[in-house]
Amino acid sequence: MASLRLAVPRAGFSMHARQLQRLRTLPPVRYASSEKPTPPKPRVLEKPDKFRPPSHPSRLKSKTRYTYGPDLTQAQKTRRYPHMMPPEGTFLHWFLTNRTIHLWISLSILISLVLGIWITDFLHNTPYRDMLPPRSMFFSHPIAYIGRWIEAYDLHVAYVSAQTAEKRKQKVDDVRKRSEYRKAHGLDQAEGGLFGGWSAKEEDESMGPALQDSNGQTTDQASSDPAIIATPGTEETSAADSEHAEDTYIDFEGKRQPVKKKWFGIW
């Protein structure tokens, strides 16, 4: 501990204290001046004539002018950098900047996709796939190959049309059966009911006045023969048949049954 105390010089602290006392006793330096400087005036803003938000100032902000330097030299124009467009005048630059060739490529891709989807759907759904010619026949007999494809496609169209007609007929029969059911149970007494006459109608109601036989079916021969002329007797008969048809209905077995009268539509 004694060696450490001797290592710290005590004369340094006393000399530093004397220097501080000397600085305190020195008078402050004052420079001669003729007049005092005027205090700065407060900044006063001009009163605006109306409210102007910061987004719509009275004066447009002037754009900063940039100096881009001189034009590029020929050596600088031909200088190549990574990920840079090819120079003008080359085939690659024409291919990348031509709009016509890009439009042609886009339409070709779209048309090829549509044709591919159509052919795939046709091959997946057609029942006449066995009638299609083999692919090797296209190079040996292209005309016969295309002809057999057209025949198979015509058969496919006829098959789809028949299926659509059958589905439509089933829906019409379903509506007619519902109408007969409502008529049999007294749910369709008036024409202006809940459905307003939207249900299925019978043949004499949908086809208009015509000559009918004893079974209530139209006779095409009588309607097409000009020798048959409508008489008051036939008109009365057709009116009576129509009234009789309103009081009857056809059940699910194809028999005509009388409509059951109900009191207040309940009993």
Layout of helices and strands:
Layout: H1 2-7, H2 11-25, H3 74-77, H4 91-97, H5 99-125, H6 137-140, H7 142-184, H8 203-207, H9 220-224, H10 232-246, E1 248-250, E2 256-258
Antiparallel strand pairs: 1-2
Top keywords for this entry?
elongated, 2 strands, membrane, mainly alpha, 267 residues, transmembrane, two-stranded antiparallel sheet, transmembrane helix
Explain this structure to me?
This protein is mainly alpha-helical and 267 residues long. It has a domain of 67 residues. Helix content is 49%, strand content 2%. It is built from 10 helices and 2 strands. A two-stranded antiparallel sheet has the order 1-2. Strand 1 and strand 2 form a beta hairpin. The protein starts with a helix and ends in a 9-residue tail after the last strand. 1% of the residues are buried. About 11% of the residues have low confidence.
Low-confidence stretches: 206-235
Helix/strand class: mainly alpha
Helix fraction by DSSP (H/I, runs of at least 4): 40-55%
Give helix and strand order, one letter per element, not per position: HHHHHHHHHHEE
The main sheet orders its strands as 1-2
Number of strands: 2
The geometry reads as elongated
Largest sheet: 2 strands, antiparallel
Distance between the termini: 128 Å
How many whole angstroms does the radius of gyration measure?
A: 53 Å
Note the beta-strand portion: under 5%
Mean pLDDT: 75
